[in-house]
Amino acid sequence: MSNVTPNTTATPSVVAPSKAGTGSTDKSVVPTSRTGSEVATGHGTTTVVDSVVARVAGIAAREAHGVYDLGGGAARAIGAIRNAINATDQGQGVSVEVGETQVAVDVTIVAEYPVALQDVANGVRADVIRAIETIVGLEVTEVNVTINDVHLPSDEHDEPAEARVQ
Predict the structure, then answer these.
(1) Candidates 3.30.70.1350, 1.10.10.10, 2.30.110.20, 3.40.309.10; correct CATH number of 50-153?
(2) Treating both helix axes as pointing N-terminal to C-terminal, what angle do 50-63 and 117-131 enclose, rounded to 10 degrees?
(3) pLDDT tens for residues 92-114?
(4) Per-residue model confidence (pLDDT) at position 50
(5) Is the pTM of this model over 0.70?
(6) What's the Cα-to-Cα distance from 52 to each of 98, 124, 145, rounded to whole Å?
(7) What's phi and psi for 95, nearest 5 deg?
(8) Residue 13, CA distances (Å) to 2, 9, 18, 46, 93 in order
(9) Boundaries of every domain in the chain
(10) Residue 123 φ/ψ, nearest 5 degrees
(11) Which range, of 7-11, 20-24, 80-84, averages the lowest pLDDT?
């Protein structure tokens, strides 16, 4: 007869092998456990580093309609230097707090003008939740969106002003 431990969580279960050398064929169903952002199974452990979760969130946020860029002034300045050497930081403007099975996300964006800011924030929130829950497998408890600037299309085409004094 086998001993079965009920799996009360939504995480998958694995079958633990019998103890070697005991001759016992008894197997138990053991719930999968998460420690931090680790998923432990009978065949090993998968660890998702916090910076990977931030990158996934950053990629999703950049793809949302009405987002021009991510990050605040200093982060965008550093990002401009990275872009000059072709090294984009997908996690720029994103911070995450990862727990055992959940994650909270803070995203700072620059929105395009004249897109409705609440629509942009809601789009970012939906895209980030979908990406993290699908790709990483963690439950998203909240996505806080800070809009710290609005990008005007004319900002890109401004030419340097002529000097007033020669």
Answers:
(1) 3.30.70.1350
(2) 140
(3) 899 999 998 999 999 999 999 99
(4) 96
(5) no
(6) 11, 18, 19
(7) -130, 145
(8) 16, 9, 16, 15, 36
(9) 50-153
(10) -65, -45
(11) 7-11
